Amino acid sequence: MIDRTTFTNMYENFDKEVINEIIEIFIREYPTRIKELEKDIQAHDFDSLAKHAHSLKGVIANFYDEDARQIAFQLEKKGKSLDSSGLDEDLLLLKKACEHLMAELNEIRKNYR
User: DSSP readout, the chain?
Assistant: First the structure.
């Protein structure tokens, strides 16, 4: 869930177009990012998993969604420690959290049009 107060405070000096573009980039890139994580998990490519999860974690942090950020961080840690336990479940949780995040972002965009 987005911390809307923090989001609003951090982006209050940004142009509406910039905020919309930041949101649009995340939504547009999300499917590719998830596919990369799926591929990493299937291939047991822990180095790539850690890198892709770290990258997604950073993007999510821009929207102040601590739940989704923590799940991405969990995947990153598992990649770094070569821990294959529960990866499929973690990925499913991340997908659900990111779908919720995207729904919230689409609502927020209505305020920035």
Answer: -B-HHHHHHHHTTS-HHHHHHHHHHHHHHHHHHHHHHHHHHHHT-HHHHHHHHHHHHHHHHTTTBHHHHHHHHHHHHHHHTT--TTHHHHHHHHHHHHHHHHHHHHHHHHTT-
pTM comes to 0.92
Nearest-angstrom CA–CA distance, 36 and 26: 15
- Give the pLDDT score at 63: 96
Query: What is the dotted CATH code of the domain comprising 4-110?
Result: 1.20.120.160
Domain boundaries defined on the chain? 4-110
Neighbouring C-alpha atoms within 13 Å toward the C-beta of 18: 7
Is-contact 20 113, C-beta < 8 A?
Answer: yes
